[in-house]
Amino acid sequence: MALFKLSINNRAYSAEVEGDTPLLWVLRDNLGLVGTKYGCGIAQCGACTVHLDGKAVRSCVLPVSAVGKAKVTTIEGLSEKGDHPVQKAWDEVDVSQCGYCQAGQIMTAAAFLKEKPKPTEEEIVGAMSGNLCRCGTYHRIREAVKVAATKTN
To answer: Which fold would CATH assign to domain 85-151?
Structure first.
C-alpha cells in the first residue's frame, strides 16, 4: 500500500491504499465522500463522474495513482450551498426522479458548460449521451442543461 495525498474539493486528503484502487472507492470507502455513485464499474454509465482539473472523468476506472497533483472535484465540492447554476437548473426543471444518476449527470453538465457555455441542442445531446438514466428523464436533463447555460453567463 502507498500513501496518496489528494486535493479534493479544495481540501487536502490522504489515503493509504493500493495504487490501482479506483478513485471512486477511495472517495467513498476511505474518505466518506459518498455523493459520487457506483453504477457499472466500466466507465459506461456516468454515475461516477467527477472533475479532474475541471474535466469530467469516470472515477470507477481511474486508478488513484493516476490522479497525481490534479485537483479532484466531486458533487460535494461543486458548490458550498448547492447553488451552482447546473444544480439550480436541476431543481428548477425538477429533473430528478430516483436521483441515482444525478450527481454524475450534474458533474458532466457542469464540465461541459464550462467548455461550451452556449451549446446547441445537438451539442447537449452529444455531451450528455454517455450518462445513463434508468428512469428516462433525458428530456428534463436536456432542458436543465439549456436552463443552466442561461445562468452561467
So the answer is: DNA polymerase; domain 1 (1.10.150)
Which residues are CB-neighbours of 32 under 8 A, at least 6 positions away?
none
pLDDT of residue 153 exceeding 80: no
Q: Please say whether the beta carbons of 86 and 144 come within 8 A.
A: yes
Report the predicted TM-score, pTM, of the whole model to 2 decimal places: 0.96
Assigned superfamily of 2-77:
Beta-grasp domain (3.10.20.30)
* Amino acid, res. 46: G
List, as one string, the DSSP characters of 111-151.
Answer: HHHHH-SS--HHHHHHHHTTS--TT--HHHHHHHHHHHHHH
The single residue listed with the C-alpha cell 458533474 is 107
Phi-psi region of 64 (alpha: psi -120 to 50; beta: other; left: phi over 0): alpha
Over 70: is that where the pLDDT of 56 sits?
yes
pLDDT digits (tens, 9 = 90+) for 65-96: 999 999 999 999 999 999 999 999 999 999 99
Question: What is the rounded distance in angstroms from the CA atom of residue 25 to the CA atom of residue 20?
Answer: 11
